[in-house]
Design goal:
Helix content: 25-40%
Bound molecules: pyridoxal-5'-phosphate
Order of helices and strands: HHEHEHEEEEEEEHHHHEEHEH
CATH topology of the largest domain: Aspartate Aminotransferase, domain 2
Radius of gyration: 21 Å
Shape: globular
CATH class of the largest domain: Alpha Beta
CATH architecture of the largest domain: 3-Layer(aba) Sandwich
Strand content: 5-15%
Strand order of the largest sheet: 1-9-8-7-4-2-3
Distance between the termini: 14 Å
Structural class: alpha/beta
């Protein structure tokens, strides 16, 4: 048994959670949860007190994202992964164009390819660590990509494909790890959807979607035609976007949500808005990310994985290590000192660290992390 390495406590970050989801949950959120422990937890989600929390989240998100008139906020159970299936069932009319440049963006395209009532999707692919957007494509009715590819640390632009509106195609953005930490113009999207356990430092299990009037209309049309005689499509109630929206507008969900998740989410949305909103949060994330990229560029054993600087994510930072240093040993030593979840994405299989620098993570803690990594590498043997 080798003794574990001890990083001097004066070097350690205040909080050692750097995961990309679930991500750090702030103490104040946990305190709010404790407070809710005897009033909200264990009570009906169809009664006013819990509905009030849902209303507060929806209003808070509308403010945070400065949503255009007519856009609406829906939520449901199952996380962003469930929303992919909701989109296949309720939003894609016939065929979609997708960009795939990592594990998550690839998964949505794979779902669409398997849906028997949809035509084979058109997939624009880029290598891991790089990025591409879907190009204008005839005969598609949705364009889909991820704002931030969590598996590789790549952030992508969010703007409509030229000509997409004229052809009546929707823009569906998986914003799970980007929403709330990266600037966005919601008017460039028809569905901007995400799970709460990344930027919003809440727990998993829910999806949120900001929907344009065109997206709502599409869901109505798709679901209506699915009920016609001879239609090949099955829209299960659980995957029905119109049912999700009808419930959301009553500040409920189709089926029972985790009330704890709602309480944590509400606390975080309020905190973000109070501190200066998306502008403040995205600056804070950019600052933390810059600390890491600059440190890596100066280091003689580390370098940013994403070569093109414009695609380097400000919320999920990926750093390759020299082959002489095993990233897994660094990750283990950090964990022994309370610094957790710094390993690269499993399926990427690189000698890499991946660090979540969401708004809850203090920029000063990110700086401390760089000292700790240097310390560990120096003392590894
Ligand atoms: C985490 C993540 C998902 C999956 O979220 P779940 O809540 O686990 O379904 C989807 N897309 C992106 C970009 C993610 O980061």
């Amino acid at each position: 048994m080798i003794d574990s390495m001890k990083i001097p406590s004066s070097m350690l970050p205040e909080d050692g959670r750097f995961g990309c989801g679930p991500s750090k949950i702030r103490r104040k959120q946990v305190a709010a949860l404790a407070e809710a422990g005897t009033t909200l937890l264990g009570t009906s989600h169809r009664q006013t007190p819990v509905k009030h929390v849902v209303a507060s989240i929806r209003e808070g998100l509308a403010e945070y994202f400065s949503i255009p008139d007519g856009w609406q906020i829906a939520l449901g159970n199952g996380g962003a992964s469930a929303f992919w299936e909701v989109a296949c069932a309720s939003l894609i009319a016939r065929r979609g164009a997708f960009a795939s440049y990592g594990s998550f963006s690839g998964k949505f395209a794979a779902s669409a390819a398997k849906a028997p009532f949809l035509e084979k999707p058109v997939v624009y692919q880029a290598d891991f660590g790089s990025c591409t957007l879907p190009k204008y494509t005839d005969d598609v009715d949705v364009y889909c990509w991820a704002h931030n590819e969590t598996s590789t640390g790549v952030m992508a632009p969010v703007r409509r494909v030229e000509g997409s509106r004229e052809q009546g195609a929707l823009t569906l953005i998986d914003a799970t790890s980007g929403a709330g930490g990266l600037p966005v113009d919601i008017a460039q999207t028809d569905a901007y959807y995400f799970s709460p356990q990344k930027v919003f430092g809440s727990d998993g299990g829910l999806w949120f979607a900001i929907l344009s009037p065109d997206a709502v209309k599409r869901a109505e049309d798709v679901e209506n035609s699915a009920t016609l005689e001879g239609a090949r499509r099955w829209v299960p109630p659980f995957l029905s976007l119109t049912q999700a929206l009808a419930n959301s507008n009553k500040n409920q969900t189709l089926n029972t949500p985790a009330i704890g998740t709602l309480v944590l989410m509400n606390e975080q949305v309020k905190w973000l808005n109070e501190h200066g909103g998306l502008k403040w949060a995205s600056k804070r994330c950019a600052k933390s990310a810059k600390t890491l990229y600059s440190w890596a560029e100066k280091s003689d054993y580390a370098k940013p994985f994403v070569e093109d600087e414009s695609f380097r994510s400000n919320v999920v930072v990926t750093i390759d290590l020299d082959d002489s240093i095993k990233a897994s040993s660094v990750v283990t030593a950090l964990r022994e000192n309370g610094i957790v979840d710094t390993s690269g994405y499993r399926k990427l299989g690189r000698n890499q660290l991946r660090i979540g620098v969401f708004p809850s993570v203090k920029p000063s803690d990110v700086e401390a992390l760089t000292y700790c990594i240097d310390y560990v590498v120096e003392h590894l043997q």
